[in-house]
Amino acid sequence: MNTLSLYFSDCPYFIITPSLQYPEYGGTVHFSGVIPDQLELPIDARWQKVIDGNVVHNLDLDDEKYRGSHVWSPPLLVINAVDYDDQGDYRLQVKTSTGWCSSITAQVHLPIVYYDEYMEGCSFLPISFFIITEYSV
After folding, report:
1. Whole-number Å distance between alpha carbons of 53 and 38
2. What is the SS3 string spanning the chain?
3. Cβ-based neighbours of 67, under 8 Å, separated by 6 or more
4. CB 92 within 8 A of CB 103
5. Phi and psi of 29, rounded to 5°?
6. Among 69-73, 95-99, 105-109, 124-128, which stretch is predicted with the lowest mean pLDDT?
7. Could you tell me the sign of the dihedral formed by the alpha carbons of 102, 76, 24, 48, in that order?
8. CA 29 to CA 36: how far, in whole Å?
9. Is the peptide bond before 111 cis (omega within 30 degrees of 0)?
10. Contact at 8 Å (CB) between 71 and 96?
11. How does strand 112-115 pair with strand 99-102?
């Protein structure tokens, strides 16, 4: 029980905003880490992509695909030329004197694109995004 309370005092809850993005294919995504004042000044920070819920890939912020900041407040992540491989969960980890603390994840989902009978591109969000209302006649 003491270990759990120490963990939460050392690593308070922090988030990434916005928590969900639906960029256009080829577009750009911007995430910002919101680190609470209770967390001691970070020594380092890293952005990660979570794959299949448990495999974590550290993002190279010197790559043209990903840009961002390691420590500055707030930590920023930019994903350029978004494609279907970029869909998924992202998190921020910050390092303090007691170790690494992880944020909750933020998500990137691309809209589904289809072509109508006139070959005009149409895009829409997954059905779970819409609110369906029942009308009575």
Report:
1. 28
2. CHHHHHHHHHCCCCEEECCEECCCCCCCEEEEEECCCCCCCCCEEEEEEEECCCEEEECCCCCCCEEECCCCCCCEEEECCCCHHHCEEEEEEEEECCEEEECCCEEECCCEEEECCCCCEEEECCHHHCCCCCCCC
3. 61, 76, 77, 78, 80
4. yes
5. -115, 140
6. 124-128
7. negative
8. 23
9. no
10. no
11. unpaired
pLDDT in tens, 41-94: 778 889 999 988 888 999 999 899 999 887 666 889 999 999 999 999 999 998
Its sign, for the CA torsion 50, 78, 104, 128, is negative
